[in-house]
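How a chain folds remains the central question behind the approach discussed here. In the encoding step, the backbone of a single protein was reduced to a row of integers, each denoting a local shape. We regard such an encoding as a compact summary of how the chain folds. The sequence in question and its structure tokens are set out directly beneath this paragraph:

___
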Amino acid sequence: MKTIFTGTGVAMITPFDQNNNIDFVSLKKTINFIIENGVDYILLMGTTSEAACMTDTEKKQVVETAIKEIRGKVPVMYGLGGNNTAEVLSRIKSTDFNGIDGILTVSPYYNKPNQEGLYRHFAEIAKISPVPVILYNVPGRTSVNITPETTLRLAHDFKNIVATKEASGSMDGIMKIIKDKPNGFTVISGDDGLTVPLISVGAEGIISVAANAFPKECSDMVRFAMNGDFTNASKIHYKLLDAVNLMFAEGNPTGVKAFMSELGIIQNYLRLPLVPASKDLVAKIKSLNSGS
């Protein structure tokens, strides 16, 4: 099964207001900003959305609002995962998938399953998901790495497991997946700074944090790279590099929200335990944006 999730995807932020409520006006503004600037698809309820600090009702409201605003202009991926397999399966069964084209499901965190446990967890999800499944390997957050062998086992055993978002940082491991994956299985970069290098060895795009604030630049960079024009792709890569480094200096989405606040798209509010960027980081972002 060939995935539609190639090119530049955006792990979209969730704007909040000063009263800690979801800012639906800014949410719609963000959606239109990133679509108008050429992104290929949108991820709702990923890590960058602060979904971990939202209620089920709020998540549903954000997804419904976003799908109505997107209006089918780009595909929609939905972050739906957890460390309790039975609960994840229950959530899949109760989800309205109207307007959702695939799910991104993170490896179970905290309880540190072994590779057989990971395989069985994702196998159960694949068996019942009504839409394509994209694995999400981010050991820096989950404390467990989905090995290339487990990813490949899942990719070969389940046709509806169509891709993996790789944020392991292991070029060797990611290249092993690319080398031995079945036809149609897609490897997606999960690190903004590694996007161009990974595309050069066979990855097919990025699920990007930076594209919230730099959708045109990120989209152009990925299109150049995927068309084999690494000269122009590299120019944009290095142009964005300082911004990307600042974006993650105090964690995600702290940095990207500071950038987007400077653009006037959202207000710079996060939910605890996350806090807004420090004055020092905001000053560096202002300086970078002004070109000084």
Notes: The domain at 7-227 is CATH 3.20.20.70 (TIM Barrel).
